[in-house]
Amino acid sequence: MFHIRRAISIKLPDVLGLTRSTLCKMSGQVANTIRTKLASALLPSHLNVINESFMHNVPKGSETHFKVVVVSDKFLDLSPIQKHRLVYDILKEEVAGGVHALSIQVSLKDGTWHLALPPYVAL
After folding, report:
1. Which of 118, 105, 122 lies closest to 46, judged by CA?
2. What CA–CA distances, in Å, run from 56 to 6, 31, 109?
């Protein structure tokens, strides 16, 4: 289990020099669907859906690789694996469809973070 604190977290947009408006323009239909489903199911205090497809060998404008950062009290009393299963269950249609990779970071409001398990770990 990995725990990271906000003080050492690196924000992808900051590293790449992207502004919030640029990231919003990069949001497509799949990203919006992911955002809507997670917001409805988890009622998060913080939700960030980042399309990381541009960092991979895919056609321009693809929506295949995502990173989601979610802070929600719905994760209370759940193990790290249960938290990730919950997110995967909410997004099962997207994962079964065109989403090739999904990186998940979940947290409670107390700042305890759980990173996604490597894809080769059987859940």
Report:
1. 105
2. 26, 16, 32
Q: Quote the tokens at residue 57.
A: 């060998």
Q: Given the structure tokens 């894809």, which residue do they identify?
A: 119
pLDDT tens digits, 36-61: 999 999 999 999 999 988 888 888 88
Confidence of residue 10 (pLDDT cuts 50, 70, 90): very low
What does pTM read for this prediction? 0.69
Strands 65-71, 113-115: parallel, antiparallel or unpaired by DSSP?
Answer: unpaired
Assigned CATH for 6-115: 3.30.300.90
Amino acid at 118: P
Q: List the chain domain ranges.
A: 6-115
